[in-house]
Amino acid sequence: MPESLLAILKLCALALLYLFFFRVIRAVWAEVRTPSVVAASGSAGPAARAPARRDARGSAKLAVLEPPELMGRAYGLGDELTVGRAAGCQVTLDDSYVSQLHARIFARDGVFYVEDLGSTNGTFLNSQKVSAPVAMKRGDRLRIGSTVMELTG
C-alpha cells in the first residue's frame, strides 16, 4: 500500500477515536448535570400547578389510559423508572413506535421529571415534545408510542 493511503487511514482512525471519546464524555455529562426545569403547558386544574412530589409512601403512579387493552395498569414511581421495549425496562411496552430504551422518569429533590432517551419517535408530555428533562405535575399526560399514561397521586 502506498504510504499516503496509510497516512489517510491513520487520520481517519484517529478521527473516529476522538469522535468516540466525545460521545462518551457527552453521555457522561448528560447523566451528571442537573436537569433544567422546563415548564410544560396544557395542564388543567389547580392540582396541576405544582410539580408532583414524592411523599414518604411513594404514592405517585403512572396510570395507563390508552390503549384500551392496557387501561387500568399502574406503575409506581420510585427514584427512577425506564420505559421502552427492552426487557430490562421497568415499564415494557410492546409497540413498534417505542424505542428499546425510550424514556426515563426520575425524582430529583422530590420532583418527578421525564426525559427522552434519544428515541426515534419522541416522548410527549401534554402534547409537547420532550427535548430536555421536564418537571411533571399531577394530571400530566405522557405519550410514548401509542401508550398514554397519566401521573396520579
Which terms summarize this structure?
single chain; 153 residues; alpha+beta; six-stranded antiparallel β-sheet; five-stranded mixed β-sheet; 29% strand
Write the layout of secondary structure elements.
Elements: H1 3-32, E1 61-66, E2 74-76, E3 80-84, E4 91-92, E5 103-108, E6 111-116, E7 123-125, E8 128-129, E9 134-135, E10 141-144, E11 147-152
Parallel strand pairs: 3-4
Antiparallel strand pairs: 1-2, 1-11, 3-5, 5-6, 6-9, 7-8, 7-10, 10-11
What does this 3D model show about the protein?
24% of the residues are buried. A hairpin with a 2-residue loop joins strand 10 (141-144) and strand 11. 20% of the residues lie in helices and 29% in strands. The N and C termini lie far apart (68 Å). Mean pLDDT is 80; it is low at 36-49. The protein contains 1 helix and 11 strands. The protein has one helix at residues 3-32, and strands at 61-66, 74-76, 80-84, 91-92, 103-108, 111-116, 123-125, 128-129, 134-135, 141-144, 147-152. A 6-stranded antiparallel sheet has the order 2-1-11-10-7-8, with no helix packed on it. By secondary structure, it is an alpha+beta fold.
Average pLDDT metric:
80
Range of helix content: 10-25%
Q: Please trace the helix and strand order, writing H or E for each element.
A: HEEEEEEEEEEE
Low-confidence segments, ≥5 residues, pLDDT <50? Answer: 36-49
Spatial strand order of the main sheet: 2-1-11-10-7-8
Class based on secondary structure composition and strand pairing: alpha+beta
The major beta sheet can be summarized as: 6 strands, antiparallel
What is the global morphology?
elongated
Number of DSSP strands? 11
Radius of gyration: 20 Å
Count the DSSP helices: 1
Beta-strand content estimate: 25-35%
> For the terminal residues, how far apart are their CA atoms?
68 Å
